[in-house]
């Protein structure tokens, strides 16, 4: 994986996360921009069938199809922790009923320290999400 400074993770890459990732990958691969974008992406899903769906959908962005390792797909009990550790920007795209499970991630506040957490989970407001620096939470 690339350095955390240039990596964006999408925790819960379902419909919304896939749409966001599609947009980011098409922007980085088809146009030039003055806004610095991440160079690598990590997407996590909860189940093996979801992982297979993402593998098929993003096949052109996965090795060995691409020479660079721009996208990593993760599933399993440590996928969330691994994704957060290896990125500086995290998009929380899990369904709202799964937020309590996410909040139970061991050492979550320490893992998020100094990182930008963007939540697109409907119905959850900033005070419900742990972050040692609330200014970093959008």
TrEMBL record:
Superkingdom to which the source organism belongs: Eukaryota
InterPro entries in alphabetical order: NAD(P)-bd_dom_sf, P5C_Rdtase_cat_N
Domain spans labelled Pyrroline-5-carboxylate reductase catalytic N-terminal: 8-123
What SUPFAM superfamilies does the entry give? NAD(P)-binding Rossmann-fold domains (SSF51735)
Q: What is this protein called?
A: Pyrroline-5-carboxylate reductase catalytic N-terminal domain-containing protein
Organism of origin: Aspergillus ellipticus CBS 707.79
């Amino acid at each position: 994986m690339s350095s955390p400074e240039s990596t964006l993770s999408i925790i819960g890459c379902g419909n919304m996360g896939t749409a966001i990732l599609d947009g980011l990958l098409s922007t980085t691969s088809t146009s030039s921009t003055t806004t610095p974008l991440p160079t690598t992406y990590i997407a996590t899903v909860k189940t093996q069938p979801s992982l297979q769906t993402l593998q098929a959908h993003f096949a052109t962005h996965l090795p060995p199809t691409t020479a660079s390792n721009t996208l990593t797909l993760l599933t399993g009990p440590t996928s969330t922790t691994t994704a957060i550790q290896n990125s500086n920007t995290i998009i929380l795209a899990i369904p709202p009923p799964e937020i309590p499970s996410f909040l139970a991630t061991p050492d979550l506040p320490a893992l998020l320290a100094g990182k930008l957490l963007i939540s697109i989970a409907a119905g959850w407001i900033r005070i419900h999400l742990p972050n040692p620096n609330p200014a970093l939470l959008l």
